[in-house]
Amino acid sequence: MVKNKKAEKKCKYIFVTGGVLSGVGKGITAASIGAILKAKGYKVSIQKCDPYLNVDAGLLNPVEHGECFVTHDGKETDLDLGHYERFLDFETNKYSSVLSGALYRELIEKERNGGFHGKTVQMIPHFTDLVQEKIAMAGQSSDIHIVEIGGTVGDYEGLSFIEAIRLFANHVGRENCLYVHVVYVPWINTSKELKTKPAQNALKDLRGFGIIPDVVVCRTEKPAPRSMCEKIAGFSGIPSEAVLNLPDIDSVYDVPFNVLKSGVLEILNKFVGDDTEPDMSRWQEFSRLRGKQWAKTVKVGLVAKYVGNEDAYICVTEALKAAAAWNKVNLEIEWINAEEATDKDFAAVDGLVVPGGFGARGAEGKIRAATYALEHDKPYLGLCLGMQMACVAAARRGGIKAANSEEFGAGEENNVIYIMEGQKGKEETGGTMRLGDCAAKLAKGSRTAKVYGVEKVMERHRHRYEVNQKFLPEIEKGGLVVSGTSPDGELVEFVEAPGARFFVATQAHPELKSRPLNVHPLFLEFVKSLK
Fold it and tell me: Does the pLDDT of residue 64 top 80, yes or no?
């Protein structure tokens, strides 16, 4: 293990930027480096700086940007923070995500309140100083803090972030900063060759902004010859041993091993002054289980609105994949369009997962899924909206034929799901929901309590609507009982179907806390029930 004296050293910083095109793998590269350093015994934190003018990710379209990830303290963020938590098995927080819109708003509010004492407010130094302040704040309790800069170098909207991380080295010492630049090297099929010119231009852009990277990661579709890295090094003025190749692989969870094989460990060891070997044994075990072809295959139907867009439900699908690996079964995820779902679709799978969401589109299909699960003892896991629709389904079975959600226009006599008191009038605004960690007490002896192994739990939330408890008699008549509430008993947190193989639904988003090496018990037990 690393000697304790490392804790006495000041925090070191790793900045990850990207060139050529977006989506090149900066987030996974950053998370993999973090996983390696954590396996060496360091306390690692990680942060995403995005140049979007949005204040947070709460209103970003999941089709375009993927799911909205929620931190334990209630910040709505980019899905990359989910990757960070899965790779590092730790909790990000409100400082882990920085968007330009939030920074501009903070600066403008300070200026309007006289905080700049009449000075002219400018991008440099005021905006860049605020970026540096957020970076220092996010990494203050860590040995190593990793910062991913969103977008690509050269984008107008991101230039101030590049300038900020350049200036940051002046304040903490260049020896305490490691710059990693991730570039794409395309394969041109007609000429049967890799083209390094886009990567060279991306490096030229970065140098033009005053940063010479310590590490260049070349992303390719297939393993590339070492001569490609040497060519990029020669044209870019970077040592050849610092130019690494990371080809595409089947699973992102094997990227840490690829990063290790690339030669980055020697660079990291030199940076932190420690040649301790990282303990990757748990990662190796997970990789072995995930890569093995098991005798049993289970099919899970994901009843979704954004069909086929895995990024929109990536925490759910990753939790299911990890649960399958540790349960030693193969997994097939069947995407079921909630707008067109039929009993035939539900019958064709071993279990059903109904994830969270907003809006009426696809709601009836999700209600049908819960109804089918109740009537045919089909394992069911409901997440947030998935629990609400399960309660609507049970209430309809219990006698309220028009039961529905107030979100979808149900009248007071039928609103089994209704708006929370503190949220009335805010239905169309962002950042007004019940967000982040909320405690729950589980019913003693319930299936839910047995799955968790405890009777008090903490789960993350993102919603405005709640189960209307005046309809509990009809919900219970329809087959569901409350198995968990808020500590004061005012809010329904969990429901379950007594005697079912597995029917548990929660108002929370347990998928946000599930990690490949520490799978959430609800997902583990759900997949286990399919075996």
Answer: no
Correct CATH for 292-530 of 3.40.50.880, 3.30.470.20, 3.30.160.20, 3.30.70.2190: 3.40.50.880
Cα gap 277→410, rounded to integer Å: 60
pLDDT at 394: 97
Residues 6-14 have a mean pLDDT of 75
Known catalytic residue at 511: yes
Identify the weakest region by mean pLDDT among 146-160, 417-431, 452-466: 417-431
| pLDDT at residue number 237 | 82
Q: From CA 227, how far away is CA 231, in angstroms rounded?
A: 6
Classify 4-285 by CATH class: alpha beta
Q: Which of 318, 466, 511, 525 is catalytic?
A: 511
Q: Say how far apart CA 112 and CA 105 lie, in whole Å.
A: 10
Q: What is the pTM of this model?
A: 0.91
- Sequence-distant (≥ 6) Cβ neighbours of residue 13 within 8 angstroms: 135, 139, 144, 145, 146, 147, 168, 172, 176, 177, 178
Sorted by where each begins, the domain ranges of the chain are 4-285, 292-530
Q: If DSSP states are collapsed to H, E and C, what string results for 47-86?
A: EEEECCCCCCCCCCCHHHHCCCEECCCCCEECCHHHHHHH
**For the chain, what percent of residues have pLDDT higher than 90?**
77
pLDDT value of residue 423: 53
In sequence order, what are the residues at sequence separation of 6 or more whose Cβ sits closer than 8 angstroms to the Cβ of residue 112? none
Catalytic residue among 384, 463, 520, 525: 384
Q: Which residue has the tokens 């007071």?
A: 412
221 is catalytic: no
List the alpha helices (DSSP H) in 358-507. 363-376, 385-397, 447-452, 472-477
Question: Is 509 an annotated catalytic residue?
Answer: yes
Q: What is the pLDDT of residue 4?
A: 38
DSSP letter string over 268-286? HHHHHT--PPP--HHHHHH
- Stretch (H or E) spanning 337: strand 330-337
445 CB burial (10 A radius; 0-12, 13-18, 19+):
exposed
Domains 4-285 and 292-530 fall in the same CATH topology = yes
Residue 144 bridge partners (DSSP): 12, 44
Q: pLDDT for 323-371, tens place per residue?
A: 999 999 999 999 999 999 999 999 999 999 999 988 888 899 999 999 9
Q: Please give the Cα distance from 509 to 385 (Å, whole number).
A: 10
* 215-220 β-sheet, strand order: 97-99, 44-50, 144-149, 12-18, 177-184, 215-220, 243-247
What is the distance between the alpha carbons of residues 375 and 377, in angstroms, rounded to a whole number?
A: 6
Catalytic residue among 391, 509, 520, 525: 509
